[in-house]
Amino acid sequence: FLGALTEEEVEEKKSHFLELLTSPSEDIRSRAWSTAMRLLEKGILRVEDLRARRGQFLELLRSDDPDVRSGAWSSVDALVRAGVITREDSHAFLELLGFKDEIVRSEAWVNSVGLVDKGVLTLEELAGRKGHFLELLESDSEDVRLEAWCLTGDLIDRGVLTPEDVREKRERFLKLLRSERVGTCYDFKYADINPEFPPLPGALWRAVISFSSPLDDETAVKAWGCVKGLITRGVLTSEEVKRMKDHFLRLLESHYGYVRPEAWRIVNELVEMGILTLDEVRERIRSLLEALRPEEEYNKDEELSIICLVGELASKGVLTKDEVEELCRGKGKP
């Protein structure tokens, strides 16, 4: 297409496109920056073209629109590799590490280690702002709090945090292991989807939301997945977690398809740490057999993951030879 244009026409169209990179519309600006990387790779745009406008890109990282922020963060790596974002831009990311909006701040901390690896930030700069991160460990938002706790291990390993910094807040993590939140993903007015649906009384509607949402179990199983790392780094003790094992055992029988297999994947490490016993696990083996034999077919990655899980459980004595054969028959394997 561009080959059919004169050099003047190409420059004119390029000029119009560059205007989109600074558009007051975040949606337009976000899409333009996504396209810009492809044009840069093709040699249509120059690094200097983008560097001159990178301030407008960096603004997208603090947008109120989560889709805009997500799209911007997904472009950061490519922009750093291309030399559009450099160490000179560290101030913009450092501001985000202490940003008032906890979700924006959380996203910045999740990406902070990658920015250190790319030379945009330093570990010393993260350590100097660790107070802003520690606040996230006590956030009222379970999503923010969980994300922060899942990141603590890496930050401890890199010297940004100490186990003592985190340990004093451990009760806020332990609460995630028994998450009982109502799933806000269902917290909409049914009339938005079906205007003819009769309104429900408030109490009944809340019950419907609570019954329908898997978010509480998903939060809990993800938190349990962080337990081993927190114990090995001295943030938690096995005894502290063991007192809450009934909440995990419930997840092994969760009726949400995603949660149950994820919980079973954590079983071995909890047994190894003395939090669960083999007898407690084997009492619930039937729920595992049901979870690994849903009616729908697995793709190849899921199939391989399940084979590995079955192998692990068999090696630890959680599954017997007969149970493994039963699983194979359920999946049509010889």
Structural commentary:
- The chain is mostly helical.
- It has helices at 7-20, 26-41, 47-51, 54-59, 66-82, 90-96, 102-117, 123-127, 130-136, 142-157, 163-167, 170-174, 202-212, 215-224, 227-232, 238-242, 245-251, 259-272, 278-282, 285-291, 300-315, 321-330.
- Helix 2 (26-41) runs parallel beside helix 5 (66-82), helix 7 (102-117) packs parallel to helix 10 and helix 14 (215-224) packs parallel to helix 18.
- The chain starts with 6 loop residues before the first helix and ends with a helix.
- 25% of the residues are buried.
Look at the structure and give the mean pLDDT. Answer: 83
Low-pLDDT regions: 182-214
State the shape: elongated
Number of helices: 22
Helix coverage percent:
55-70%
Major sheet summary line? none
Taking all Cα atoms into account, the compactness measure Rg is: 25 Å
Task: Give, in order, the helices and strands.
Answer: HHHHHHHHHHHHHHHHHHHHHH
Distance between the termini: 55 Å
What would the keywords be for this entry?
334 residues, mainly alpha, elongated, single chain
